[in-house]
Amino acid sequence: MSVESTAMAFSTITGSVSLVLSDAPVAILYHFPVNQAHDGVLRTLDFICDTVDTSSASKPGKGKRKSSLKSHGNHSYFLSGGESFLVKMVAPLSLLLIVAVTIRAALYRSSLAELIAERVEVVSPITAWKRVIEGLALLDLGVSPYSGDVFHETPLIIYLFHFLVDYAEITFMLADVITAVALYMAVKDFNKQVFRKQKFSVEAERYPADCLELIRSPTEMFYIPLKVAMFYLLNPFTILSCVAKSTCGLNNAVLSLFILTTIKGNVLLSAIFLCLATYQSIYPLTLCAPAMLYLMQHQYVPVNPRRAAFWWFLVQYLFMYLGSLFVIVCLSFFLLGSWDFLPSVYGFILSVPDLTPNIGLFWYFFAEMFEHFRLFFLCVFQINVFFYTVPLCIKLKDQPVFLMFMQLAVISIFKSYPTVGDTALYLAFLPVWSHLHRCECLLHTWVRSGSTGSTGNIFLVSCVLLACSALFPVLWHLWIYAGSANSNFYYAITLLFNVAQILLVSDYFYAFLRREHHLTAGLYLKKKDGSEATLVLK
Amino acid sequence: MAASRCSRCAWLFLVFIYSLYVVVISEEPTPGNEQHASVADNPQTPAETVKQPTEERRWEATQVDETVPDDAAAANKQDLPVPDSVLTSTPPLKDEFQEELVIRPLHSGDIYASFQFRTVWETDFTRGRKVSHYRLFPKSLGQVISKFSVRELHISFTQGYWRTMQWGQPYLPSPPGAELWVWFQDTVTDVDATWKELTNVLSGIFCASLNFIDSTNTVQPSASFKPLGIANGTDHRFLRYATLPREIVCTENLTPWKKLLPCGSKAGLAVLLKSEKLFHSSFHSQAVHIRPVCQDGPCKTASLELRQTLNVVFDLHASGQGKREWSLFKMFSRTLTEACPLASSSKIYIDVTDNPQEDQFELSPATHLLSQAVVLGDRRTFSVYDLTQQVTFGTVRSLNVLIRWKSTEGDMLRPLLHAERYVAGYGLQTGEIHTLIYNNHPFRSFPVLLLDSVPWYLRLYVHTLTVTSKGKDNKPSYIHYQPSKDRMRPHLLEMLVQLPPHSVTEVTVQFERALLKWTEYTPDPNHGFYVGYEHIACHICHKSVLQVRNERIFQMCFSFNCRSSVVSALVPSTVAMNTNITKEQPLFSTFFPAKEESSYFIRVYTEPLLVNLPTPDFSMPYNVICLTCTVVAVGYGSLYNLLTRSFQVEEPNPGLAKRIANVIRKMRGVPPLVAKVFQSQLIQSVQTHKGRLVCVVNFATVTKIAPAVNYAAPMDAGTSAYLQLR
């Protein structure tokens, strides 16, 4: 959709707002008196957000904004716009949900479901549905599911499915729907805040004059939440994961609820969902940091270790987080009557005894490892997942949501038993950062790119990811069934897949940092001699 | 009824004593005379006139016969005196040794030879008594038993697979490879450590790789392996069972096994055990069983029994050169010349059940000693050669039993119970183990206990377990499942399944193949991994013969004893010996204690499975480590770059010469050379200011050019930087 047509659509939605959008949104800011332009755009965006967010009245900030809106004396678009909003936004989302559920239901009924459920890329020893069923069967036999090495899910999952085993398909579809809706709402809220922040910056004239092209417009942001939901629901990785009934879908649902509650600023629920996610697989532990950063900013707590308020908030959040973790672990203990699940779930994740091939880096590495170096490399690889938290926090302390995205990506690349379901969750965030891509393309036309990667690679990287996804089953077949290849083939593809993921993430990171830099330093940098400058990392 | 039976028993006993007296008095050496004597005895026994008289064979006394007094064969017990006379003359022995060889001609033309050597020692290791004097019992085993507080020990080494469908049931079943199961005494505190130590010691004694038994192939079956000897408790915490399906059995295992015999391989039946012949066969199995048994009827004291068995099946085509003619010499390249002097009994049994009229095969030299025994639920008739009697060896002083077939046809044995097993599925990811259990009994259903021990690297999914018979789901009435722990312990699946009559029961369970660490593979990983056989233990109901339970025999014999002791006090010791039934029957028929009247116990082992696992490339650990670390480093490096650096405008690099010059200048303390100050560098930008062209001078550059200049000047310069160019 071209910018003009979006703009046209946009103007029809806003109805009573008499905005004439010209070719580019940037142009609005350029031609119109700044205040006027901002007001118009802001009003539009506020309207978009507020029509859905009815609970906003409780928040002081929003109340203020509403009153400012009222001062404009335009009440009518709330009503008229609300109806059209339902048509324009809720309808596509419901359509999307229906399509997604239909695809899944059709695949469940087909013969492919069994085939997909066996795929090592889709299910890991932890998340495999077959193993959950095995755990249930062991419970029925009166054997503790954790006495063996087949079942590695958490006790809550086994008790959940103890009741829901007959409705498993619905549960997994519901989990995907919840994830998509939660991401949709979270991203919408986040966009609203981004825009507000941008507004203040523009009003305060903090941005250099030549950076107007980098400023985001409501038109481009309007469909992002829907795109996020679509990226999640229609991603083949998610569909496969759901059809295989990988419990990864439930983890994703919990994580997305955590993201939603965090972005909504609900401290308690955020802590509880984060604790649930941590309980499911240790790694979301690192999301603690972005959540706290975000919530502090949300509550206007200064992120400054010298301030008491900072520590007080930290203690509060950690208390809620660890407290609920403690409650859940104790609950699991009382459900099973033994602590067996701790080594069987968390020991299994951390010590990687099961070397079943997957899309990660661990399996072949530890299959080929010399025994006396095993522990060392195990520690190195596991620390690698947690290692990036602190530096990323320092670098991205003003951008907690991007930090969250980075953490999710790092976890899904470097975790011990990754599946495509984990990848799908962070891939769903890519539309949120689509402006980076656009900005970078813009920059490419004007400025020579730097020495390290740029988002120009994204096309290449996406192709590599697609090719790898196609090659996984092919090389698996050659190795396991045809016997005409060996393990190295499959291993090579997992390597390539991971390199592509790493490049993808680092490209986004690079583009993000670069945009931030341009927003402070100006877009068209010149050398001292007046020639075009090359921006490098130093 | 009971009274009449008792009186009949008393009558028999009188006859027996009388005949003993007659035999001792007459002392006739030639078989002809013996025949004559037996024929002469015939009219004196009233009960035997029904079937016996025309036959010129003699029956060896067996307990079965005694317990079924109505049977015609029961009356002939004239042969007993031979061992009796030996035993009565010597004081009661502390230990006793028996040896026997059973030869069963198989319908396929193959021949099955089963050796059993039994040493019974009236001693008790359990009371912590230090036993240092050994006579017949091997000291090496005795020390092991006392040191590790072993109650029962069963070990077998087998090469080849017993083909139940062709050969029928073996006397003593054993799985391919090595099998070891041990019941420890309940005084043992750390069973696992003791077990580990014991396997290592046994490994040394038998020159086998039993030291490879560890926790990954050891299980504790809850129901399948009950103690075979007398036992107080059956707490399976004291049981350890392990198998090594890969174990190759050969000469180096046979030699230490033969050394355990009192006569070694110097005399007696053991001279036949020549390894070059024994291992040139389709099936070879050697075993050692140690268990406590009752010393006498009331079972007040226990004695230790050591049974060494060796079973071998000679192939018609490989060993017999295709001729249907077998002799001891042909089988073992030896003939027998004497019994082991230490043995109290030494016999050769030849199964002639299928050959009543000698139309199938003929035996030479002919023997007239016959014996009946209930083996595996079937009453079998055997021709007996007693090696303790010189007459057996004839004039050439050597015994070479020869079996020559007359006809080649013969109906195949159809065993009541047999089992097969195979792996279904393709590829190296998943698979399914199928076990077929056949119940060929036409009208009786019976329960079987199925034991399956699967190594951890085949991950069983017990929820996929299905048991179907006759197309219907057959739910096991008892399931004991212990899931595996990776690199710790195997899966153990035990279940009790009722087999409907004349049916095939199929047990299937799915598994997933694990990828192992490269050091965990065997040296020939693509050969595959042996997965232990399934083991089916079963009490089968008899078809025709009722085996009388032990307790009843004890009771009957005891009452018999009481009554007869009144009547004839002449031979009390002899009669007392008779009460211990385990010494009365042929050894091969007394291994498994019978618990019920109408059933007998058998074990069936299925084939071991050979399963392929996916393998990594063994040649490239370094490559894998390097490549994976590279990928991690790519991730680390790119994030590190972005995290630690910041964006800056690239400055042109000074040339090398200038850099060196700067270093020198720095050492001299002179301000370093600065890059040529271009006008463009000095002048930051040129703008129009209030209609005039204004050049903004780069302040930083100005200070760099003249660092020593008083700062007032640059300040001035700064303010006066708005140069009017025109």
TrEMBL record, chain A:
Tagged with keyword Transmembrane helix: yes
PANTHER family: GPI TRANSAMIDASE COMPONENT PIG-U (PTHR13121), PHOSPHATIDYLINOSITOL GLYCAN ANCHOR BIOSYNTHESIS CLASS U PROTEIN (PTHR13121:SF0)
Keyword Endoplasmic reticulum in record: yes
Membrane topology according to the record: Multi-pass membrane protein
Compartments reported by the entry: Endoplasmic reticulum membrane
Transmembrane segments: 156-187, 222-241, 253-274, 309-336, 348-367, 373-394, 458-482, 488-510
Name of the protein this chain belongs to: Phosphatidylinositol glycan anchor biosynthesis class U protein
Listed pathway(s): Glycolipid biosynthesis; glycosylphosphatidylinositol-anchor biosynthesis
GO biological process, one term: GPI anchor biosynthetic process
Keywords for the protein's UniProt record, in alphabetical order: Endoplasmic reticulum, GPI-anchor biosynthesis, Membrane, Transmembrane, Transmembrane helix
Family: Belongs to the PIGU family.
Species the sequence originates in: Gambusia affinis (Western mosquitofish)
GO CC terms: GPI-anchor transamidase complex
Principal localisation: endoplasmic reticulum
Automatic annotation (TrEMBL), chain B:
Signal peptide, first to last residue: 1-26
Record GO cellular component, one term: GPI-anchor transamidase complex
InterPro entries membership: PIG-T
Any one GO BP annotation for this protein: attachment of GPI anchor to protein
Keyword Signal in record: yes
Polar residues composition-biased segments: 32-47
Keywords of the record: Signal
Residue numbers spanned by region Disordered: 31-67
Protein name per the record: GPI transamidase component PIG-T
